[in-house]
Design goal:
Blueprint: H1 3-23, H2 27-38, H3 45-61, H4 68-91, H5 94-113, H6 122-139, H7 143-149, H8 155-179, H9 185-208, H10 214-237
C-alpha cells in the first residue's frame, strides 16, 4: 500500500479506538468497512487481534460497573454463535455474509431508534450472545446485539459490560478462526502495525468518557451502527 493509505488506516484505527473507549463499542463497526475499502488485507481479522488490548483495558478500567449476571449469559451464547459464524464462513460467499450482517445490524438500529427497550432476561442475553458471536466471527462486528440489550443502561454499565464480553469473545472468535484456517500471518503483521493507533485512540477516550452521557451514547450507537451496515451493503453491491 502507499504511504497515504497507511496514514489513512492509522487515523481511522485511532478514531475507531477512541470511539469504542468512549461509547463502549464501535471499533470494528467504524474501522472494518472503511479499512476494507482502502485495502482488503486491512480487515476484518486484524481488528479482532487489536481489540484484545483495547477491550481488556476498558474492562479493567470500569470493572466496578460490569453486569456480571448478564456477562455469563452472553458469554454462554458466544460459543454457539462462533460455531454458526465459522459454518457461514465455510459455505456462504463474502457478499452474502455482508448482506446478512448489514440487514441484522439495521434491524437492531431500527429497534433502538424506535425507543423500545429489549427486556433483559437470561433468554434475551443468551440470544444477544449468539448473535454477537456470529457477527464477531463473520465480520468482526458483534456489538449491535449487545447494544440492543443494554440500550437503557447507564454509560458505565454499557462500556464495562460490553468490554468484558468482548475481552472473552474476541479470544473465542480468534480461536475458531485459527482452528478453521481463517487467520493468516499477514493479519498479525497488519494488527501489529496498526496497534500504536489503538493506543493513541484509547488515550483520547480517557479524556472523553466522562463527558458523554447515556443519551449521547445512544445516538452514537445508532449513527455508527447504521453507517457500518450501509457500508457493508455498499461493499456487497459495488
Amino acid at each position: 500500500m502507499s504511504p497515504i493509505a497507511w496514514v489513512l488506516a492509522l487515523l481511522i484505527t485511532a478514531g475507531a479506538a477512541s470511539f469504542q473507549g468512549t461509547v463502549g463499542l464501535g471499533f470494528a463497526m467504524v474501522s472494518v468497512p472503511l479499512l476494507s475499502l482502502i485495502h482488503p488485507s486491512l480487515a476484518p481479522v486484524p481488528q479482532l487481534i487489536m481489540m484484545i488490548p483495547l477491550t481488556v483495558s476498558m474492562a479493567w478500567r470500569e470493572r466496578h460497573a460490569i453486569d456480571l449476571h448478564g456477562f455469563w449469559w452472553i458469554i454462554g451464547g458466544r460459543i454457539p454463535g462462533a460455531i454458526i459464524g465459522v459454518t457461514l464462513l465455510a459455505f456462504a460467499t463474502r457478499r452474502t455474509l455482508d448482506v446478512l450482517i448489514a440487514l441484522f445490524v439495521l434491524g437492531a438500529v431500527g429497534v433502538i431508534a424506535s425507543g423500545r427497550h429489549v427486556r433483559r432476561t437470561p433468554g434475551t442475553k443468551l440470544a444477544a450472545g449468539i448473535a454477537s458471536g456470529t457477527g464477531g466471527v463473520v465480520a468482526s462486528i458483534g456489538g449491535p446485539p449487545l447494544a440492543l440489550v443494554y440500550s437503557a443502561e447507564d454509560s458505565d454499565t454499557i462500556r464495562s459490560t460490553l468490554a468484558a464480553v468482548f475481552s472473552i469473545g474476541v479470544f473465542t472468535s480468534l480461536a475458531f478462526r485459527y482452528a478453521t484456517g481463517n487467520i493468516a500471518w499477514l493479519d498479525v503483521r497488519v494488527a501489529v502495525a496498526l496497534l500504536p493507533a489503538v493506543i493513541v485512540g484509547y488515550a483520547i477516550s480517557l479524556l472523553l468518557k466522562n463527558r458523554v452521557g447515556k443519551a449521547q451514547i445512544r445516538v452514537a450507537i445508532l449513527v455508527v451502527s447504521g453507517a457500518a451496515a450501509i457500508a457493508l451493503l455498499a461493499r456487497s453491491i459495488f
